[in-house]
Specification:
Elements: H1 6-37, E1 48-51, E2 54-58, H2 121-136, E3 153-158, E4 166-175, E5 184-185, E6 188-193, E7 203-206, E8 232-234, H3 235-249, H4 253-262, E9 264-265, E10 276-278, H5 279-289
Parallel strand pairs: 4-6
Antiparallel strand pairs: 1-2, 3-4, 3-7, 5-6, 8-10, 9-10
Helix pairs in contact: 3-4
Protein name: Potassium-transporting ATPase KdpC subunit
Organism: Nocardia africana
Main location: membrane
């Protein structure tokens, strides 16, 4: 019997391996996994939510409930903030804001370019808390926030750099002609901040203020999730919104609260995380109720 050349035998062996792997990994395995996934029902298809035959979203992904101008629609429960994409909740731009606890000073926009500025994490939290408080009719104040919803941060200049008497104080996140949130610091009049001015030599001093230790607006109402796509809110945030939704929909508050309870999931495995409320499913249940 004639033996095949070594190089040809090696190529044929490689082709057989490719064919076998293509069949098992490219066809048999995907089909098997798809078949097993069907046991999980709607979740295998992305947990899609249909309303009157039209795709409304996925219960696994958060979405905004806002009008054309980006304002919250009062009759709907609102999700937590999102840093995914320009308007939030963009699945193609999933991610966090990547700002940490030391992000307390804003870059103030100039008059010639109003879009040139950027907010630090503290001002983002303060602004969101104030907006939620205004929407829900509660006290939106938080520690280290000014009444106008920016980070309450002073920049103090001392005579000898890090030591000596304070010779100048600037409210770093309040652009002129704003009135600083405090008038004096260590006997020195506080100034408003001038955009595009270098204040890097100042000592950063966050001011706690008189806000309550436990704010009325819960933490998940003012902070974005790591993915930016979290579909859930805390039970406390849902309870905060319930009176507004009941009022807008002319429903008894007790009925809205019952729907919140019905769409609340417990801790994973009974001990991981906190109970949460799925915003999309709750809002769709309210639409059916109304």
């Amino acid at each position: 019997m004639t033996r095949l050349p070594v190089w040809l035998a090696q190529h044929l062996a490689g082709l057989r391996v490719i064919a076998l792997l293509t069949l098992t990994v490219g066809l048999v395995y995907p089909l098997a996994m798809t078949g097993i996934a069907q046991a999980f029902g709607n979740r295998a298809a992305g947990s899609l939510v249909q309303v009157n035959g039209h795709l409304s979203g996925s219960s696994l992904l958060g979405q905004n409930f806002t009008d054309a101008a980006g304002n919250p629609v009062p009759k709907y429960f609102q999700p937590r903030p999102s840093a995914a994409g320009t308007n939030g909740y963009d699945p193609t731009a999933s991610g966090a804001g990547n700002l940490g606890g030391e992000s307390v000073v804003d870059t103030l926009p100039t008059s010639s370019d109003p879009k040139s500025g950027s907010q630090g994490l503290l001002t983002q939290v303060c602004a969101r808390s104030k907006a939620v408080g205004d929407l829900e009719g509660v006290d939106g104040s938080r520690p280290y926030c000014t009444a106008d919803g920016v980070g309450a941060v002073l920049g103090a200049f001392r005579a000898n750099g890090l030591t000596g008497n304070v010779v100048r104080v600037v409210s770093l996140n309040q652009a002129c002609p704003a009135t600083p949130f405090v008038q004096n610091y260590e006997g020195v009049t506080v100034e408003c901040a001038t955009p595009a001015t270098d204040y890097s030599a100042a000592l950063i001093i966050p001011v706690r203020g008189a806000a309550p230790a436990v704010p009325a607006v819960p933490a998940d109402a003012v902070t974005a999730s790591g993915s930016g796509l979290d579909p859930d809110i805390s039970v406390s945030y849902a309870k905060l919104q319930a009176p507004r939704v009941a009022r807008e929909r002319h429903l008894p508050l007790e009925r809205v609260q019952a729907l919140v309870s019905a769409h609340t999931t417990g801790r994973a495995l009974g001990f991981l995380g906190e109970p949460a409320v799925n915003v999309l499913e709750l809002n769709r249940a309210l639409d059916r109720e109304s």
